Amino acid sequence: MVLENQVAIVTGAGGSIGRAIALTLAGDGADIVINDMVRETAEETAAMVEALGRKSLVCIGSVVDSAWVDSMAEEVMEKLGRIDIMVNNAGITRDGLIVRMKDDQWELVLDVNLKSAFFCTRAVAKHMMRARTGRVVNIASVVGVTGNAGQANYSASKGGLIALTKTTAKELAPRGINCNAVAPGFIETPMTHQLPEEARDAWLRNIPLARPGTAQDVADVVAFLAGPRSSYVTGQVINICGGMVM
Length: 246
Fold this sequence. Notes:
By secondary structure, the protein is of the alpha/beta class. The protein is built from nine helices and seven strands; from the N terminus they run βαβαβαβαβααβαααβ. The model has no long low-confidence stretch (mean pLDDT 96).
């Protein structure tokens, strides 16, 4: 129970990766703040957290709204008394070739994937700075490192998130706050299940471990970065991709 008496906020915690992260952190002893836009899936995650004997707090709202994010942080402090871990996991895709990509496709993905992480980090940082301790973990992507045809918006958002991670790490390190990112590769999620078989096969041919990753593979690395064993790790990006990017 290395995270006992700590509080973690996980955005997008109703989805497969977000839920795995929330449950893994709860299994390590943390109480979990579950943010999502869909109440039903958020409350399902909350019930699973409570089944592990931990407290949960469901916060339904858009992390693209800076005022709402600030109010979420204040609610967490009021009801749970502290914020130790911030996991910026909320993300979407709106794929398309650059020449066909609409303005709203570009703006929405940058807002949800990048701007929200800035809003959430800014909101929790002041509380972590007072406590002189904290962990921020950003969920980036290998395409933020490599780029990917048809995903200019998504790749740009994840590349920006990596840059934000490094800057946050440098700014907050003097106050005892670590900030790192994980960059998942081909992970089995409802999103990847929708890919045509040929596309899946093409991805798998580029993975030395010859299998897709799981949400738990991501959650385990996040838990390491959120816990005490990573105390001398900050400003890093860890690829979780079976060797696809090395």
